[in-house]
Design a protein that fits this description.
The structure holds two protein chains of two kinds. By secondary structure, chain A is of the alpha/beta class. Helix content of chain A is 36%, strand content 26%. Classes of the chains: A alpha/beta, B alpha/beta. Bound molecules: fe (ii) ion (FE2). Fe (ii) ion binds next to strand 2 of chain B.
Chain lengths: 270, 299
């Protein structure tokens, strides 16, 4: 089996830059728990897809051997910087670039000094892969790809890792419900914007915990529209694709609001 | 320091789109990749706009960019100096630009305060490590490559996408009014830059050589026709009709003006019914781009 662990994590910078705010600190603690589980699974590589790495032409894959820098979030600049230093599994990333033609996707390698790494990728990497010790494959979210195609990309990436005889941790970075507060709130009293989104998030989490793949597949299209799932929950598609839809349950390490949107840290039971 | 006068004024507004291809085609020393040629008609349109801007002698350039997207509020660059390397996330092969700019922080603060007075949620961006977005940088380079005029950068709050086009553009209208009030209060001679493409339907693949102009043309006839209709109305000074049509134009041509810069600029200028000067039009990877000027001093 190539996939040794799998996670869904939120891409908001708030748990990282402002963990002293209790609702966000709770998510940070959950992320650390997920990070510990990931390290215990001893992967050779992390396959990470972030909804915040937006592509519109080709499917982009990071292929620079080392990427490092200091990022400031476009929206949450007042809470400070996001440092990062990541090691890229260039051999596997390049294999992904070469192979996506087989599923009708044109890919491009990204290897440029100063290329902007998105907030979600950095936050996930800093919690799940502290020190950037484990090599990563970073995949973009092409806005023109749907859920099904993203599942195929995840499956393909996992298959190529298996071919290279690698143990894989797969990570999808994005929110559950994507509706958020637009105005200033008392951050200590942050909550999910509306009860209906809270209900939707909990419904999806329950299906994940029950290992109910069929129920999940049935519920996700409606979650995308009525639950305002972040980017149609394509980060979930990436993980489910890599798992071939097979998981027996899930642990929810944290769930809560991130300025009104739904943040959940989920570890799949394989 | 910007020179001040008794009562400030917006002396001109420009529609100043930001395809990074224009910088690439020009080969300035700040940009790493080198091109053979490309998008001359748009670059020459900017050449004309540069001359106009030079004659206007503004104290400050204000630019609203769709590629600094904020969800909570309308933000303003609020650090005196910002510098770094800007790599376009969509076209990293053609845009890797080393920039350094000066911000008119006092005016940014005034815009922020006036916006709040208008009932908008506004924020100042005070982080010195902030990376300025490639839309802002491309527009500023194309209109003023000397980088010698202080800048106020405004983010694009995603309200037109998160709420509805109409609700979002109402916010941009208020943002424009706030911007005007701040400029007048601080006595600045200001030029506004709306960093927007018109029809935004684009090709999904780049030619092997990006500057292969034999591959460049409008994405669709209907998009082109929309652009010409809007441009012609603007040339006639029929601003009312343009804003009546705007939501339909946005829907049918996927126009980037949805992000708000165009509305912000017109609201700040008071929706003048004066004929625009079209400096030029051209397509970039199929999208429609016009460089246009509204000179309020000559009006
Ligand atoms: Fe743009």
């Amino acid at each position: 089996m190539a996939v040794v662990s799998a996670f869904l994590v939120p891409g908001s910078p708030l748990p990282y830059v402002k963990r002293d705010n209790p609702p966000w600190g709770k998510i940070a603690t959950g992320l650390e728990r997920a990070g510990a589980a990931l390290v215990r699974s001893e992967p050779d590589v992390i396959l990470l897809y972030s909804t915040q790495w937006i592509a519109v032409l080709d499917q982009l894959w990071q292929t620079r051997p080392r990427v490092s820098g200091l990022h400031v979030d476009e929206n949450w600049h007042e809470y400070g910087e996001l440092p990062y230093a990541l090691k890229i599994d260039t051999r596997l990333a390049k294999a992904c670039v070469s192979a996506t033609g087989t599923i009708g996707v044109k890919s491009k390698a990204v290897n440029y000094d100063g290329f902007p790494i998105d907030t979600g990728t950095i936050v996930a990497a800093n919690f799940l892969n502290p020190g950037g010790k484990i090599p990563m494959v970073l995949a973009s979210n092409n806005l023109y790809h749907d859920f099904a195609l993203t599942e195929k990309l995840g499956r393909l990436a996992a298959r190529l890792a298996r071919k290279q005889k690698k143990r894989v941790a797969v990570v999808g970075v994005g929110n559950f419900s994507g509706a958020f507060f637009r105005h200033e709130i008392d951050i200590a009293k942050d909550k999910i914007v509306a009860p209906k989104y809270d209900r939707w998030n909990k419904k999806i989490l329950a299906l994940l915990q029950a290992g109910d793949g069929k129920g999940l597949s049935a519920a996700l299209p409606e979650f995308a529209t009525k639950g305002k799932a972040d980017m149609g929950f394509k980060h979930g598609a990436w993980v489910l694709g890599a798992l071939g839809g097979k998981f027996t349950g899930a642990q929810v390490h944290a769930y809560g609001p991130l300025y009104g949107s739904g943040g959940a840290v989920v570890e799949f039971d394989l | 320091m910007p020179r001040t006068q008794k009562k400030g004024a917006i002396v001109a507004g420009f529609l100043a789109p930001h395809p990074p291809h224009l910088v690439y085609g020009e080969n300035p020393p700040q940009n790493e990749p080198r091109s053979q040629c490309g998008w001359e008609q748009l670059r020459w349109a900017y050449e004309r706009a540069r001359k106009s801007l030079d004659a206007l002698k503004p104290d400050v350039l204000l630019v609203h960019s769709p590629h600094w997207i904020t969800q909570q509020g309308h933000h303003f660059l609020g650090v005196p100096q910002l510098s770094g390397k800007s790599v376009d996330p969509i076209f990293p092969n053609i845009f890797r630009y080393t920039f350094a700019l000066n911000v008119d922080v006092a005016l940014a603060e005034a815009c922020c305060a006036e916006g709040a007075r208008q009932g908008l949620y506004t924020k100042l961006m005070r982080n010195p490590h902030f990376r300025v977005d490639y839309g802002t940088i491309t527009t500023l380079h194309m209109i003023r490559p000397q980088w010698d005029i202080p800048v106020v950068g405004l983010s694009a709050n995603n309200s037109p996408y998160y709420l509805s086009t109409e609700e979002g553009l109402q916010e941009m209208d208020r943002l424009g009014q706030a911007t005007r009030a701040a400029i007048e209060k601080l006595g600045r001679r200001a030029v506004l830059l709306a960093s927007n493409t018109l029809c935004h339907w684009h090709f999904h693949e780049e030619p092997a050589l990006p500057e292969d102009m034999s591959q460049e043309h409008p994405h669709s006839l209907s998009g082109y026709q929309w652009d010409m209709r809007i441009i012609d109305l603007l040339r006639q000074g029929n601003t009312k009709e343009v804003f009546r049509l705007l939501p339909q134009f946005i829907d049918e041509a996927f126009a980037e003006v949805k992000s708000g810069a165009f509305t912000w600029m017109f609201a700040a200028m008071g929706y003048p019914e004066i004929p625009a000067e079209l400096h030029g039009y051209g397509t970039v990877i199929g999208t429609g781009n016009a460089v246009m000027e509204w000179n309020l001093e000559g009006a």
